[in-house]
């Protein structure tokens, strides 16, 4: 069996939390969900939030709160999750792709500035694979920013939590994310105008769209141990980075003012991916592309529009990195990284 790239970090305490919820017979949206919202607000330094059963719904509500409609123009990364294009197409919103920086896989500032020369209504900032953008730059753009922290939950910029900079914050809690509830998402805002918008929308929805307590109970106990989880991920990331330094390959880099998180371990290959994937599979590790079902792929736009992003899609490979990996597997992965072709 291949060692999977992603694996939820579920401990006895997590199972006990879910079991306690089951025993209570209160498994729909309720008090535990409210408690999770409260603790997420404290952790991310946010004020008002809502939990939903799926990522698509969270994105849709966030875009509605930003008052984006058919014909609105929105900047986003070509490497953003394809779910954004799914929602954008449905609403008739016009996506404007800003190609990325080759070192960080974050949107390039010059590309954004060029797009801003024409009318733009909002920007979607998704930081891939634990990276952190220059939040001072994005906060100065003069347009609403939707900040997606699905893959950099817990990261900081100048000591401030990512997720607290945008007008609206969105994140997924699927099984492959740092904070998981087995399947769910959240939308938060610190801005009173957008908070009221979100509240008015959610007041008119039935309870079926909101996250159930049974899911929230899993995320809640994980959130209470998030610093320990992040520390274990960082320790593994440092081990793999030391191994990678012995090769001609590299990984993604954030700016010096940030503290990124180890969401997974991406390797930007010096050459093609075919031989490396075969080698990794031979060593019983799942060979997985870092960027799958991206926004540019779902939109079916031509590669030449964003050549840097298209290159990263073709030559960035993910390696397993999660707290339950174990010493033996970590040592094995380090050896594989060191000997990559």
Task: Tell me what the structure shows.
The chain has 13 helices and 13 strands. The protein is an alpha/beta fold and 341 residues long. The strands form three sheets. It has a seven-stranded mixed sheet, with helices on both faces. Strands 7-6-10 form a three-stranded antiparallel sheet, with no helix packed on it. Helix 6 links the parallel strand 4 and strand 5. It is globular and about 55 Å long.
Layout of helices and strands, plus pairs?
Blueprint: H1 12-24, H2 31-44, E1 48-52, H3 55-65, E2 73-76, H4 82-91, E3 94-97, H5 109-115, E4 122-126, H6 135-139, E5 145-148, E6 156-157, E7 160-161, E8 168-172, E9 185-189, H7 192-203, H8 213-223, H9 226-244, E10 258-259, E11 265-268, H10 274-282, E12 288-289, H11 295-299, H12 307-315, E13 316-319, H13 327-338
Parallel strand pairs: 2-3, 2-4, 4-5, 5-8
Antiparallel strand pairs: 1-9, 6-7, 6-10, 8-9, 11-13, 12-13
CATH secondary-structure class of the largest domain: Alpha Beta
**Number of domains in the coordinates?**
2
Would you list the SSEs in sequence order as H and E?
A: HHEHEHEHEHEEEEEHHHEEHEHHEH
Name the shape in a single word.
globular
Could you give the order of strands across the largest sheet?
A: 1-9-8-5-4-2-3
Task: Work out the radius of gyration.
Answer: 20 Å
